[in-house]
Known about the structure:
6-stranded mixed beta sheet
Amino acid sequence: MRRLASALALAAGALALSLGSADGATAHAQSTDEAFVDVLQVSGLLDRVVADEVRRAIDRADADGAQALILQLNSRGAVIPDEDVAQLAAAIHDAAVPVAVWVGPSGARALGSPGQLLGAAGVTGMAPGARAGDFGDPLPVDFELQFGTDADRLRTGTVGADEALERGLVRIPNDDAGVPVLRNMVFALDGLEHDGRVVETVDERIGEDGTVIRELTAEPRFFKLGPVAQLFHTVASPPVAYLLFAIGLSLLIFEFFTAGVGVAGFFGAVCTVLGCYGLAALPVRPLAIVALLVAFFGLAVDVQTGVPRTWTVIGLVLFTAASFTLYRDGLSLSWITLLAGVGGVALAFVVGMPSMVRARFATPTIGREWMIGEVGDAVDAVDPDGVVRIREATWKARTNRATPIPAGGRVRVVAIDGIILEVEPEAGGARDYRERRSH
């Protein structure tokens, strides 16, 4: 228990230090004296970490004198309330610098409430292969969200890049036909009027052959979440939070029953803390969390006996049911994640940990010779192999074929062979255990 408490204290200290030194985002290009456009990558579920970073990006673009801010959006939903997403949409709509939203790269999605940020931005674009829609009910904002000519369809359906351009969901202030890549989005910002200012990102000149040459004069300055912010954003994804929680509790149980050196306990504490953070940030069913805790309690009961029995079955059933029903509001775990979680826990508690406990505590080096001569009961028939109970603990056992022991029969331990007890009937054995020991 002292090792477990120390591991939890170390984990909490490390997390506090990380949070205290967290930087909002990291830049991939240094600002220059020339005009520039900020670009922030917004990917994954929209959580508080990402929402706060978008607000910081808007303030940073204004403070640094950026021509505009582009949000590179690829999100399939939000795990924060619609009211919080509405506040983010209002921050985009009312920003001092123009904010554009580009759904990209190819294959990106802008679904659910994060997709409605397209309606709050002055300029929008989509890469080929990207889709937007399934917005649901409009966000509660005090301005009109611009969804083009078919807003009703976007509530329950999705559109691709070409259809979005035709229906007005994609809006650009110049004659560019589209924005297949992010660089085209910077071109598309040219000529945008915002708060009395005109965005100038392109220089046009006539070439020697009479053709119009357009050169980009505003270089993009890329930003993304910082290391600590990215860690907590990743932890708050459904599969990662679920697996971290399961792995953390498994390692803590392993450390508790095997009396190791503390490594498993430390990593188990870290995984559990991160898993709890992720589950707290996601929409979960409280009853499923309770079922997970009861499941691990049941699994731990049989680990200390060294033999999987009824509690193992109960624990695995509860763990499986909780895994399938853990999340709500449309979130769910993939089959690969469920297979890894349920299969990994089953393998660990049916095969791995019981064998480790028996091997750890059945060796003569820690004094199990006292079991020789002890009397107990056969849990099931020992003929020649079975399971016996000695002093309320169950063990694998073996007897002589000439003296099978029925279920419920009294047994006596005569020797220990590795992790298996050699037993015989309390009375009527082939040879008395004292006689064996005398030889």
